[in-house]
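Translate sequence into structure tokens.
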Amino acid sequence: GRGISADAMAFAAVRVMPSAMAIGHAAGVAAAIAARDHGGSYREVPISELQSTLRRQNAFLGN
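Result follows.
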């Protein structure tokens, strides 16, 4: 069945929620790695480490 029902204006906000959740998840993981290993500098977090951590957490990273 249908998981949600919304009018057109509300649905515009609802349809971007999965993307927003994925971005928030990645940002949180990057911040945790930065705090743990890089003195809080998120720019120093290796993308490969971020991606592998997200994969271990079953995040969707695209095709």
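Note: Residues 8-56 form one domain.
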